[in-house]
Amino acid sequence: AQSVTQPDIHITVSEGASLELRCNYSYGATPYLFWYVQSPGQGLQLLLKYFSGDTLVQGIKGFEAEFKRSQSSFNLRKPSVHWSDAAEYFCAVGSLLQAGTALIFGKGTTLSVSS
Amino acid sequence: DAGVTQSPTHLIKTRGQHVTLRCSPISGHKSVSWYQQVLGQGPQFIFQYYEKEERGRGNFPDRFSARQFPNYSSELNVNALLLGDSALYLCASSNSGTGPYNEQFFGPGTRLTVL
Fold first, then answer.
1. What DSSP designation does A31 have?
2. B44: β partners
3. What pLDDT, on a 0 to 100 scale, did the predictor assign at position B1?
4. What integer pLDDT is reported at residue B98 of this predicted model?
5. What residues are paired with B53 via a beta bridge?
6. By the 8 A CB rule, do B36 and B87 touch?
7. In the 8-state DSSP scheme, what is residue B103?
8. Strand B64-68 vs strand B74-78: parallel, antiparallel, or unpaired?
């Protein structure tokens, strides 16, 4: 069965420091991978996605992610974190249904930014 | 352009009652999906609709049902509410088909509390 694991429940990073959020997936075919961010009381906003091609993908707000098939990973990175990046981050894989698609999400990583 | 809208924002019900949640997709989007997000967890897929037809159903009991209207808006209905149904219910729309490559745009959600 398809699944997504985010090993880190909570991460605290100093403002200006680099960030890496881990994501491991289990999916039989070529995965469609996504990172979403959720601020308190808000819906989900797509940061970036990977379908094929270049394994390093760029997203919004200065985020990037690298797809590593051999490690079944899709880690999210940012070189310099801003206080406004504090939020919940979700990794997801698109799972093909008989006639549609479901996003399967990990449990999320809460990012806190310290000054 | 307006994003995905959901109503109501918050809702309090008691066990055994019925609830209807509403979603209006982004103009031009024909696919709507529903997700349940329990506190501290990632969203879990409930339904996907496209052109008024159900295209996918997650692992939820028959107390959960949905439909999509000719204007592509959607309703999620939950009967015989249980305490465990307390969650943030998210609606997402996408603009073409139901493939995993179609970006899903999420609304702010409806917070349901069951007492």
1. -
2. B36
3. 63
4. 67
5. B50
6. yes
7. P
8. antiparallel
Q: What pLDDT digit, counting tens, does each position of B11-54 carry?
A: 999 999 999 999 999 999 999 999 999 998 999 999 999 989 99
A50 vs B102: CA distance, rounded Å = 12
pLDDT tens digits, one per residue of B50-106? 989 999 999 999 999 999 999 999 999 999 999 999 999 999 999 866 677 778 999
Q: Nearest 10 degrees: CA dihedral of A76, A107, A24, B59?
A: -130
Cβ–Cβ of A104/B45 closer than 8 Å? yes
Please tell me whether residue A85 adopts helix, strand or coil conformation.
helix
Contacts of A35 (CB under 8 A, 6+ apart): A21, A23, A46, A47, A48, A49, A59, A63, A65, A74, A76, A89, A90, A91, A92
CB contact under 8 A, A94 and B90: no
For A52-80, give one letter per residue: b (16+ CB within 10 A) or e: eeeeebebeeebbbbbeeeeebbbbebee
| A87 SS3 class | strand
Residues 6+ apart with CB under 8 A from B12: B112, B113, B114, B115
What residue type is assigned to position A36 of the chain? Y
Comparing CB atoms, the residue among B42, B55, B56 nearest residue A105 is B42
Residue B42 has its nearest CB partner, among A43, A101, A107, at: A107
